[in-house]
Design brief:
14 strands, Rossmann fold, 16% strand
Length: 439
């Protein structure tokens, strides 16, 4: 059944794993009480199923910024067992460690980081998919896959489970006696292998609609705008002469995008802004133009951590990032994202990028936008810059499909329309309207 792509309701029970005492901390790090939100508790109970055999394996789907990590921790406290956590990158590993230290009674010395920088194997161990699939040549086995059997794990958590790489798929097929929890905001795989995730991890146990959590104030309302930017005549000749794949890159790197980007930054000069792109050369030009620090795959981990911390603290208010920031980067005060280029028609990437700005906003960034209704979680602003009359428009439409299905609307504006609205925006900003936060 697994190989045929059908999720199996496993009623055979699971290996208990070695015991681990862990409870939710009753006090939040900043003072005050801490407890799981109602929907987080529902997700935990849906997975646990009262400890019955039908519980213990499956996928929980929740929006970015809604606390999937907390749900994973909640499951750990239910099972009281040693746990292996697989995540996307070192930044995510350390965010898990921080959350475990702040939100549970688990001592730090019982939490291990298994990455390229250090290899600790503890009762709770957190690693990355990249680490597990690392090998020095294609002819050898994956040496770090042995981590699955280094301790008697009672639970394996697959964070951002939609990214599960093929080698981990194969190993997971042999782990059906262990409890398996998949966490994701978007169970979308552009390779069409979503069914295999359900088959190997288990069926979907809980799915929290994005708009439902927005109405309750648990995530920010998002105003999505696609701004269509013209190509100048000379650049259009380059576009027309290129083959289809290169046409996409030419359109994505349209120099005219820099002009409208600066207008958006001016309107949001009091906000925390992420500039997100696909192409390194384009990002480097934008970073020079705006003075924004840049994080790419070439940026070492210590520098990434330093820049993320500076952004969180408000020392810097604009940060340019490549696709390395698509997943599991906790920047709660970011309330504006400007997407200057992306990976073709990736619906997954579109949703994850919007997710970078969906954490509930503080009172200072709840100004509303052009008369549109605000939510209890505040307002986030998501801009996509697309070259007009190019294949980038078609790919943008495909990217938006998942979010449209979730109830989001994209307001499409020509660059000239957006620029013409500048005076009106300036007049309304003092009263809390306009495109940006006025506080």
């Amino acid at each position: 059944l697994i190989s045929a792509g059908f999720p199996v309701e496993d009623l055979g029970g699971y290996s208990a794993g070695d015991a681990l005492a862990i409870e939710i901390a009753t006090q939040a790090p900043g003072g005050g009480s801490f407890a799981l939100r109602e929907y987080q508790q529902q997700a935990v109970e849906s997975f646990y199923a009262g400890g019955r055999p039908e519980g213990g394996s499956g996928v929980i789907v929740m929006p970015c910024g809604s606390g999937k990590t907390i749900v994973g921790i909640g499951v750990m406290t239910k099972l009281q067992t040693e746990t292996l956590i697989l995540s996307t990158n070192i930044t995510a590993v350390r965010q898990w460690i921080e959350e475990l230290c702040e939100k549970t009674t688990l001592p730090r010395e019982l939490i291990g980081e298994y990455t390229g920088e250090q290899k600790q194997i503890m009762p709770v161990t957190i690693t990355t998919y990249q680490m597990l699939t690392h090998r020095t040549s294609t002819d050898e086995d994956f040496p770090h896959m042995a981590l699955f059997n280094r301790r008697n794990w009672g639970l394996i958590i697959y964070d951002e489970v939609h990214l599960l790489p093929a080698p981990v798929f194969r190993v997971t097929a042999g782990l059906q006696a262990r409890r398996r929890l998949g966490l994701t905001a978007t169970l979308i795989r552009e390779d069409g292998r979503e069914g295999e995730v359900f088959s190997l991890i288990g069926p979907k146990k809980y799915d929290a609609p994005w708009k439902s959590l927005e109405k309750q104030g648990w995530i920010a309302a998002a105003l999505c705008r696609e701004i269509r930017v013209p190509l100048d005549p000379e650049y259009r000749l380059t576009y027309v002469a290129a083959d289809r794949r290169n046409q996409f890159r030419v359109a994505s790197e349209n120099p005219q995008k820099a002009e409208i980007l600066q207008e958006i930054l001016q309107r949001h000069r009091k906000d925390r802004v992420l500039i997100i792109g696909q192409y390194l050369s384009q990002l480097e030009e934008i970073a020079k133009l705006t003075g924004a620090p840049l994080i790419t795959g070439r940026t070492n981990q210590s520098e990434r951590d330093h820049l993320y911390d500076a952004f969180r603290s408000g020392t810097i208010s604009i940060l340019a990032v490549s696709k390395v920031a698509n997943f599991a980067v906790d920047l709660p005060d970011a309330n504006v994202a400007i997407q200057i280029s992306g990976t073709f028609g990736s619906r997954q990437e579109e949703a994850q990028r919007l997710g970078r700005i969906l954490r509930p906003k503080n009172e200072g960034c709840r100004g509303g936008a052009g008369g549109e209704e605000d939510s209890a979680g505040g307002t986030a602003y998501f801009y996509t810059l697309v070259s007009r009359d190019t294949i980038e428009v078609d790919f943008a439409m495909k990217r938006q499909l998942f979010l449209v299905e979730q109830g989001y609307e994209y307001h499409i504006l020509e660059m000239e329309e957006f620029s013409a609205a500048k005076e009106q925006t300036n007049q309304s900003s003092n009263g809390g309207g306009g495109y940006g936060c006025s506080g």
